[in-house]
Amino acid sequence: MSKKHYLLNVTGFFTQLEERMNADCRPNIANHAKKQYEKYNRQLEALKELG
User: Fold this and answer.
1) Which pLDDT value is given to residue 51?
2) Which of 20, 22, 24, 30 is the most interior residue, by most CB within 10 Å?
3) Residues 6 or more apart from 10 whose CB is under 8 A from it?
4) Three-state SS for 26?
C-alpha cells in the first residue's frame, strides 16, 4: 500500500470517527479525532504537492 493510499484511509477513518463521536455526544473523542485528521491531512497535502 502506498503512503498516499494509507493517508487517505487514515484521514477517512478520523473523519468518520469525529462524526460518530459528535453524534454520540462524545466531544472529547471527537476533538481528538479532528486533531488527528488535521495531522494526517497535512501529511497528505504535502505528498500531493510533491507528486
Assistant:
1) 76
2) 30
3) 40
4) coil
Residues 2-42: tens digit of each pLDDT = 999 999 999 999 999 999 999 999 999 999 999 999 999 99
Q: What are the cell numbers at 3?
A: 503512503
Identify residue 11 by its one-letter amino acid code: T
Residue type, 7: L
Give pLDDT, residue 11: 98
Looking up cell 495531522 gives: 39
In contact, 43 and 2? CB cutoff 8 Å: no
If 0-12 CB within 10 Å is exposed, 13-18 middle and 19+ buried, where does residue 3 land?
A: exposed
